[in-house]
Design goal:
single chain; alpha+beta; YefM-like fold; three-stranded mixed β-sheet
Length: 95
């Protein structure tokens, strides 16, 4: 896996694009921390690649929600409790 700084991406973009065709993914860093992923794509694979990224984001979001529910001790709620919470939140939205 290759890492490229934001500065190198700005100043040496032609080299980065050439490397991307070989590496397929490059991690962009800022101050030593990863901030983005560059991924090689083609017209034929663009939709598939976007779907994969979106699916990965959704999986992360669900895992985060599950972790928060455990931290808030709501992981043992009954279906009745869940439906009551939903009802309360829907009432808040309609106001």
């Amino acid at each position: 896996m290759q890492f490229v700084t934001v500065r190198d991406l700005r100043g040496k973009s032609a080299q980065v694009w050439r490397r991307l065709s070989n590496e397929k993914e490059i991690i962009i860093t800022s101050n030593g921390k990863p901030i983005a992923i560059l991924s090689a794509a083609s017209e034929g694979s663009l939709e598939e690649s976007l779907a994969a990224f979106r699916q990965a984001r959704a999986i992360r979001a669900v895992a985060s929600l599950q972790q928060r529910s455990v931290e808030m001790e709501r992981d043992q709620m009954s279906l009745e409790d869940i439906n009551a919470e939903i009802k309360v939140e829907r009432k808040k939205r309609s106001k």
